[in-house]
Please model this.
Amino acid sequence: MEILSLLGDGFAVALTPQNLFLALMGCFLGTLMGALPGLGPANGVAILIPIAFSLGLGPTPSLILLTSVYYGAMYGGRISSILLNIPGDEPAMMTCLDGYPMALQGKAGEALSLSGIASFVGAFVATCGLVVLAPQLVKIALLFGPAEYFVLFTVAFATLGGITSTNQAKSAFAAALGLGIAMIGSDSQTGSQRFTFDHIHLYDGIDFLIAIVGLFALSEVFIFLEQHNSSAAAKSGPPKIGRILPDFKILKRCVPSITRGTALGFFAGVLPGAGASLGSFLAYSLEKQTVDRKGETFGKGDPRGVAAPEAGNNAASGGALVPMLALGVPGSGTTAVLLAVLLQLNITPGPLLFTKNPDVVWGLIAALFIGNFMLLAMNIPLVGLFTRVLLVPTRILMPVVAMISFVGIYSITGSTFDVMLMVGFGVAGWVLRKLEIPLVPVILGILLGNQMEVNLRRAMTISDGDWSTLVGSPLAIILWIIAIAGFVLPMFYGRRMKARMEASRNEDEFIGD
Model:
């Protein structure tokens, strides 16, 4: 009953005209960005961060806008997957397998609507899971001391490479790079300068918003400039939409697939580092093994092959918010960006968030429920409008992204040095992406580096310099086991799982042809 009362207070916050408008705009813009191949939710949120801060929105409105963009981008990723066979982001890769064959059969509208319904169910159930599970995790988090928090942050670094990661050395290098950047500025205890090279602009450290916008948004601009070609949609155009609403019999057939995909996706989202990609892959693989072991229909336009992965990746996106809000540890790349927003707003996620800022957290959760219904209402009747964004040439889109980045960061900081620093991070992001080094561990290092250092120093002070305190409790030992397993297992299973995902896609595309 207490949860329902708190959720009621959250709806009182979310149902104000301003917050409803921001949720609507976030859902709309997020869907547009998700539909564009390559952008994805992390880039979409990063692009709009400067706007949220330059408008002077408060903590709750800013979070409502950006999390609505997050959910909207997860919905929108299916559009280019189904119409062009080009995943809007990695989690939408599995949607291509049966979504594109349905489009070729003249059922693009049905596939888009069915995937929208599956996305709604997955995200709605995941948000319900967030309501139930996050407060329980808070109770566990109250058992954490400085040593346990240090190990928890280590778990985040060890696992955020993802279950499907094939090169943990690059993930470790990226995390070390982020931690190094976090050390720039004044030492929190002694006040001495570290890595500032006597440059006054670096005395306060590097603002992680500058790093995020540079690494994600500007690096995307540089990637497009390097390719300097229009998208496939601009050349040939997407297939015709056709009938919008799927047949009731098809919906009924897909109910078990959506249910299984939602359950698997939410579980994958709650696990740090697993993310929506794993949720989508597991949902599709389970469905194929359950209903089509002989491979007779999957890969040829089976609606269940669209519904299951879409329910899985959207449930995972909601599940990833659970560890971020309850423990302060992001469960995915996009939640790492949202964590930066919380920190910039002087809100510390973790167990105290639910007691110190209940209006923020419950207002956000209520807005997610509202946003889900908005997205369902938008993604069926406005399917034709969202497909038109695929025709926007990159020569128009990328200057808009760059303009938002420059104007937004300058309006926040008022410093030309910070703008140039953002450009430097953009170039660094482009180089890292060319070297296939993940950007998320870099961001995580910048975000959590100072907190990790503070908790390590506190633990050493309490134990009088005894390093064994880091393994001095059963909880710390369990976390160390999770961290080691999360870092080592991808070395053995990551390549195999990635190969299976690619093999599954190639096999089904071959069958479809």
Remarks:
- Strands lie at 185-186, 193-194.
- The chain is about 75% helix and 0% strand.
- Confidence is low (pLDDT under 50) at residues 230-236.
- The two ends are 54 Å apart (CA to CA).
